[in-house]
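We now fix the convention by which a protein and its fold are recorded. Here is one such record, which you should read through line by line:

>
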Amino acid sequence: MKTCLIVDDSSVIRKVARRILEGLEFEILEAEDGEQALDACRRQLPEAILLDWNMPKMDGYEFLRSLRRLPGGDAPRVVFCTTENDVAQIARALHAGANEYIMKPFDKDIVEAKFQEVGLI
């Protein structure tokens, strides 16, 4: 079973994403911010990361840059989640190593489509 780390400071978003991704047969790990997520990745790299962009302590951008510098950190497929629709923000995330992005609010169809696009399902 593939593992997905859901990184979001909102417990509601994590719960919704968990239900969707468990339905797609992922084992789920959760983190409330980039620091917790980086610690989780240092222990074991997941196949997928659903990453919020705006979080306290360490935002999605800082996390992603740190992840990609870890040994094997280029392997996880990262789909970042944002409320930002600024093209520059999206370009910045993709340049930092994100594989795809989705806008909040999202639903099962959107998540499933993006995870298919990056080869996770």
About this structure: The chain has one domain: 2-111. The first strand starts at residue 2 and ends at 7. The CA atoms of residues 21 and 28 lie 8 Å apart.
